[in-house]
Amino acid sequence: MVGHTCQNNKGKTVILDLFTPRPIHQLCDAAELKRTLGALLAGEAFKAVEEIYGWFESLHRAEGVRPMQLFDIVRQLDEVGYHKIRRLTRDYLHSARLSKGEERRLWSMCFNYWGELTSLYAYCAEQLRPALQDKADKSEQAGESLKSIMPLLLSRQMAARTNQLRWMVYSYSVIGEDLWRGLGHAFSRAVADGFANEPVLLYPGMNQTTSVTREYLHLLVLSASSADSLMPFEIDLADRLIGHLLPHFVLSETFQKDSVYWVDIAEGKPPTRLAREPAALTPTLRFFSPGRAHQALSQLIQRVGQGEVPEELNLGGNYAADIVLPVMQHLALYWAPEPPLRQHPRHSVKARIAALQGFEDCFTLFSGEIARFGKEQTAAVWVVENVSLGGFLASADIAAEGLKIGTLLGLQPEGSENWVLGIVRRYSKETTTQASVGIQALSRQAWSVKLRPGGNGFSPHNAIPGICLEEHAGESELRIVVPSGCFDARETIEFAHESRHYMLTPIALEEVGDDFEIARYRFTVFS
Q1: What is the pTM of this model?
Q2: What is the pLDDT of residue 344?
Q3: 439, 424 contact by CB (below 8 A)
Q4: Per-residue pLDDT for 483 more than 90?
Q5: Which helix (H) or strand (E) holds 133?
Q6: Which phi and psi (to 5°) does residue 449 adopt?
Q7: What would the mean pLDDT of 354-380 be, rounded to a whole number?
């Protein structure tokens, strides 16, 4: 028996339930929600995020859950998930031990997590808007309650979407028109609701408020800062620097004399430099400028250039000045009132080019030992879109393993006998199968050598492989590419080439890649 019968005041028999009704969704039960949140807090990061994502999916399918209750459940799950997914983000950006499969697994989970959370917050907002606007059907107290939660709800929605798009930036994916349009739509709805600029503390424990406008502007600035020429961990550094300096930026509905970029919130397009003006002035246009951010960044660059990383900068970890400085200089270039000029003019072409990746293959190429290519290994074939004195822009197969910013390349244009040493400076996924790769030409006449510590003769045993760049760093200077960890600022080295002996004194380490270093040396030649 689950109940008993009695008669009501009209003499009719009714059934009285002895048990409480079953909740519409498991997490609508307060005790179950508390137990679930506690287990998630104690759980391992990836499993916790995976479980929360599963709860998001089930809540999306649930019917009959009141919007206010749904928001409260999602809000609490989000607060647990936020801290767990930050751990996954650090692993993705900074762990050197991740395999490609683990990277893809992390990326997919985090990208999908933020997308599902965005959809849930958007659903809650759409369900609550009629109640907010219809004052006749609610008490004054209920109306004030709605007004107090809407700024947080809309800011969480915007932050979740911008976090999802950050993951696209980390992987050099092009943000599609539908995502830009959805972002602009969410911003415009918040403006119409009157909550776009309401300050909120996004998550408990944060020491800085945000708003819908601030979250939207943050992504606009990141998109305008040419992140496709930064390593993923550098993108994170740039993102944090943007957050630190964002209060100096100005977003306005009208063109200002110092405006640098514009965006149409109704169109699915990223922000554009005012070097190309909008076709027409419309109510959906927004203009933004760095304001005082460029000046504040210049002051930071001066301090960091002296070896000091200010304590007030929250960079997500402790970074040496020589790591932070290039990222700051990169941002300064793209926040300047005048756009960065190309060093060399580009010419459109359509030509095929053979490409080999990594220091080991490049060393073999420039030593003249190319017989094994085509037997043991086949060069990838890319299509060059344009060329300049400084390098190439090519379309590459996205399946190329290990291709990323800073990859060393050996390149041979179709029909040429000459190989060029290059390095990937820009990388952007254009489609699911093709990527756009910007390549700087390091040397068009490189040659491989065997390097030995100075004074030890020219025995090839235990020699360090090196690639000399024909283009000298300066008078009596030579740039040499060596394997990672082989540069020693205290040790002279020597090598023999074409019956001549070179003695090299180290000057400085110029650049560090995944499997190589580029160093400058002062040289003396002995016949």
Answers
A1: 0.80
A2: 55
A3: yes
A4: yes
A5: helix 100-133
A6: -140, 165
A7: 74
